[in-house]
Design brief:
Layout lengths: L10 E3 L7 H11 L5 E8 L6 H10 L5 E9 L3 H11 L6 E5 L3 H12 L9 H15 L4 E4 L9 H12 L7 E6 L2 E2 L2 E2 L2 H18 L3 H6 L10 E4 L2 H4 L8 H12 L5 E7 L17 H19 L6 H28 L6 H24 L10 H7 L3 H16 L2
Parallel strand pairs: 1-10, 2-3, 2-5, 3-4, 6-10
Antiparallel strand pairs: 5-9, 6-9, 7-8
């Protein structure tokens, strides 16, 4: 059972009473009369072939309060798209699949590319962005949740707790970030959050001094969680990164667009496990190595927009400060693991910290050498201003794909 402590400047909604899923869903069903709800599932086709997504869909068939489920499907040819239609067909809710590799959506993407308004790289950020556009186009939901498709420990209580803060008409939250303990198979997981993000934020606080944005980011118990929910109007103005900085970028946009009392985080699962990325010690273009560089650049970019002036000397100070703080955290996590009967490999933890420290310098150097780099995808407000009929065309393309290839 969680404590009730409020840390930082963002409201934390705890799991204090192990409330039943049925009780939560009964309330959500009542809320749905005023605030219809939707779910976004960004998926790779390969995830349809694993046990995690099959179980997720099984759980979702019992969810009574959703008006719509939007699935973004990446890396699928025509045969695989047809298979996906059958795979998700057991969902009783209204649902649509965005076939991102299909000719209709690729044609729309090419038009947006010509106007320099489309995502510049493939990945989860691009998938989520098009799903957000479809939510705006379909106009079926007021409150929207998003979670990954590789959650091994999934149950529908996670979704109920995730969407509740933005679905309850008596709450004024525009955005909710999910958090949980990354513990599974007798180990503490979540290395990038534990060993990079938290110690890096503390190092930035120490080197830069008091900074309200850093305090905001450090308020989140699991800033890299892929689960969040939001009110529909959030989608118009948000500019999200297309790289691994997605989760940090979303939090940064919430910080820019809304006051703190409109944002919260919620404890959504007692245990959580999903597909793990390789550390990729010798490949900065893959795995946790690329993730750490993208995340670090996202933090540097945000601070630069606030007037922070970076230099090679400052990055060296940040790296050295980070390294000492991160090593101290390893001892903390090790003791926490031992007391709870869990295992933690100090050697592999220190190897990760050494790589992250090196990647802080690489991210800083890339930032200095590419000051005009803008990996953010334009907001849908900007896109609809340049192409007023884009949402109607997106909706029509998805409907035509559904009619042509379903069944």
């Amino acid at each position: 059972m969680a404590d009730f402590y409020q840390n930082g400047i963002v409201t934390t909604l705890h799991n204090l009473n192990s409330r039943s899923t049925e009780a939560l869903e009964a309330e959500l069903l009542r809320f749905s009369q005023k605030r219809p709800m939707a779910l976004i599932l960004p998926s790779l086709f390969s995830e349809l072939e694993g046990p995690a997504l099959t179980h997720i869909v099984d759980e979702l068939t019992h969810v009574p309060y959703l008006s719509e489920i939007v699935i973004g499907l990446d890396r699928a040819d025509e045969e695989q798209y047809r298979h996906a239609q059958k795979f998700f067909d057991r969902l009783p809710q209204h649902h649509r699949i965005l076939w991102n590799d299909g000719p209709r959506l690729k044609a729309i993407d090419e038009e947006l590319q010509a106007l320099d308004l489309a995502p510049k790289e493939l990945g989860k950020g691009r998938n989520v962005w098009y799903c957000m556009g479809y939510i705006l186009a379909s106009n079926k939901a007021e409150s929207v949740a998003l979670h990954d498709c590789d959650i091994i420990t999934y149950n529908r209580d996670l979704l109920a707790r995730l969407i509740y803060p933005v679905a309850n008409p008596q709450f004024n939250y525009e955005f909710c970030k999910g958090y949980y303990a990354r513990v599974a198979d007798g180990k503490i997981n979540g290395r990038v959050s534990r060993l990079l993000v938290t110690p890096l934020l503390r190092a930035l606080k120490r080197t830069l001094g008091d900074n309200e944005y850093i305090e905001f980011m450090d308020s989140f118990r699991y800033p890299l969680a892929g689960e969040f929910s939001f009110r529909r109007d959030v989608l118009n103005d948000i500019r999200i990164p297309s790289d691994w900085g997605l989760e940090i970028g979303v939090l940064s946009e919430m910080h820019r667009n809304y006051s703190h009392n409109r944002l919260c985080q919620a404890d959504i699962a007692e245990t959580y496990d999903h597909k793990h990325q390789d550390l990729s010690l010798n490949n900065e273009q893959g795995g946790l190595s690329k993730m750490s560089i993208d995340i670090t650049k996202a933090l540097f970019r945000k601070l630069a927009t606030q007037g922070v002036s970076f230099s090679n000397e400052m990055f060296r100070s940040i790296k050295a400060t980070y390294f000492r703080i991160a090593l101290d955290f390893i001892e903390t996590y090790h003791n926490d693991a031992v007391m709870n009967g869990l295992s933690l490999d100090i050697h592999s933890e220190e190897k990760a910290v050494e790589m992250f420290a090196s990647n802080i310098m690489k991210a800083g150097q890339h930032f200095l050498e590419n000051p005009m780099e803008t990996p953010f995808i334009p907001s849908w407000n900007r896109v609809t201003s340049a192409m007023p009929d884009i949402l109607d065309r997106l909706l029509e393309a998805v409907e035509l794909d559904t009619e042509e290839f379903r069944g």
